[in-house]
Amino acid sequence: MKNKAYSCIKSFALLLASVVSLGFSGFSQAEVITLKAPRPVVWKDFLGVNAHLLWFAPPQYGEQYTRQFQYLKALGLEWVRIDVHWALHEYPQGVYHLQEMDRVVADLAANQLKSVVYVVGSANHATTAPPDAPYPDQYPPSNPQLFSDFIGMLARRYPSVDAWQVWNEPNLPSYWTPMPDSAGYMNLFRSANDTLRAIDPNKPVVTAGMAYHSELPGGGLMLEQLLGLGLMDLNPVVAYQPYTLTPVGNDPVAQDFLSATEFINSGLRRHGAQQIWATEWGWSSYPGPVVEQPVIGQNGQADYLLKRLALMSAQDFDRIFLFALSDLDARASFRDQFYGLINLDGYPAGYAKPAYTALKSFLTATGPRLVPAEPPLIQGLPSYAKLYSIAWKRDDGRNVWVFWGDSGYTLILPNVPSATVYDPLYGSQALATGVNGARVSTADRVRILVW
User: Fold this and answer.
1) Could you give the CA distance from residue 78 to residue 45 in angstroms, rounded to a whole number?
2) DSSP assignment, residue 151?
3) In this model, does residue 204 exceed pLDDT 90?
4) Residue 60 confidence (pLDDT)
5) Continuous segment of H or E residues that includes residue 150
6) Helix/strand/coil (H, E, C) string of 355-392?
7) What is the pLDDT of residues 290-312, one digit of tens each?
């Protein structure tokens, strides 16, 4: 969950994917941040969601449970990430409580959805916590084999699960108490990986989603330390969870999300990573009082989600999982209750949050599959402006330009005679034309040009 401090990577150089400057003679140059994806994007394969289906198991939460499947399928997405807390499913040792899990896995298969299941939290019989610890599940297990036995039992019981993920955010003390330990996590991952590969050698095994860019409390990066301990010898899917205060980073001027992600992903690729997943990212729409994340409201959440989705689609990720499909109830901390695309009850349809309707509009406007392309020629950008620019081509041959600015400017696109401009945050569209090329207005929110 998200009740933890955000961090800022200050040691990374600013490594933007591409920065192009445009301007007029006699003025300082404008900044156009142009990102070009390394490969095509198919939304149903690339974008997944974290779905807390085990929180809403029937019969008590039957309606919320059913509606979550309906909302997810209406987006045209296929991948879900499910949380399994070991302590809730094995007690006492060797006695398993899996009726709700049986239902969830069966319903995922029936709805033709793909799943990654992450297992986290030590069972009471396996924890290293002292007897008086209030949260013994937050401590690592006393023997990695005990965890491996449990996740291996799940893998045999649920062969339809598409990938297994070992733990969650072990670089934070709240998930690896009293202090994160890269060598300790590596021992846990290696043991679980050996067990899972023996059951199905071809099924992906995913590292824990490292919080943020895997920073450790005492300095350094857990991913860097794991590479030194031989992580790539196990051929894992490498995962982290790049939460930041704004879509471009904790420091919007430095745009540290872009630089940190480029640093991490390029380093992982150099070390042989075949798959890089972002298994959580998102923002809460909570009303306050402030708990670490600034209060941005429901429209702010929708705006941030679209900008980050646009950026991540053009970065070197193989799959990303938005956090989360639904708001949660009081079992979560107050801020964590409002990360969802849909409200807690999810009913009726008009109660979908702006984040859901904006995402659906975004996916509809762009189309299901995109190939990296070159952006249109731009004229009229003021010298003091900043513009984000990501260009694609759809399978139907139409061009797609995703863009937003730091304010409102009128641009002329001389090579685009006319186009449709979509404003997914508000679900509107308009025709853009002009004598010397289409005239389009920027705003501090995502717009999509299609021609």
Assistant:
1) 7
2) H
3) yes
4) 84
5) helix 144-157
6) HHHHHHHHHHHHCCEEEECCCCCCECCCCCCEEEEEEE
7) 999 999 999 999 999 999 999 99
**What residues contact 292, with CB distance under 8 A and at least 6 apart?**
3, 4, 5, 6, 335
DSSP state, 215? B
CA-to-CA dists, residue 83 to 75, 167, 324, 443, angstroms: 21, 10, 12, 37
Element (H, E) at 184: helix 182-199
Its pTM stands at 0.94
Between CA 24 and CA 101 the distance in angstroms is 61
Q: How far apart are the first and last CA of the chain?
A: 41
pLDDT digits (tens, 9 = 90+) for 123-155: 999 999 999 999 999 999 999 999 999 999 999
Distance CA 401, CA 232 (A): 36
Model confidence at 10: pLDDT above 60? no
Neighbours of 298 (CB within 10 A): 16
Least confident of 57-71, 160-174, 181-195, 316-330: 57-71
Q: Tell me what pLDDT residue 345 has.
A: 85
Question: CA dihedral in degrees (300, 303, 304, 308; nearest 10)?
Answer: 180
Contact by Cβ (8 Å): 370, 344? no
pLDDT number for residue 129? 98
* Exposure on the CB side of residue 446, measured as CA atoms within 13 A: 31
Distance CA 421, CA 411 (A): 13
Q: By C-alpha distance, which of 3, 2, 14 is closest to 251?
A: 14
Structural tokens at position 279: 């298994």
Are 74 and 111 within 8 A, CB to CB? no
Three-class SS state of 147: helix
Alpha helices in 241-325, H assignment, sequence order: 256-270, 297-313
Q: Where is pLDDT greater, at 404 or 23?
A: 404
**How many other CB atoms are found less than 10 A from the CB of residue 341?**
30
Q: Rounded distance, CA 254 to CA 267, Å?
A: 20
- Tell me: pLDDT of 4 over 80: no
The half-sphere exposure of 70 on its side-chain side, counting CA atoms within 13 A, is 13
pLDDT in tens, 75-118: 999 999 999 999 999 999 999 999 999 999 999 999 999 999 99
| Rounded distance between C-alpha atoms, residue 315 and residue 318, angstroms | 9
Q: Which residues contact 70 (CB under 8 A, 6 or more apart)?
A: none
Residue matched to tokens 């610890």: 133
What's the CA gap between 404 and 406, in Å, rounded? 7
One-letter amino acid for residue 300 of the chain: G
Q: Which residues, 6 or more positions from 17, have their beta carbon under 8 angstroms from its beta carbon?
A: 33, 34, 35, 36, 258, 262, 314, 315
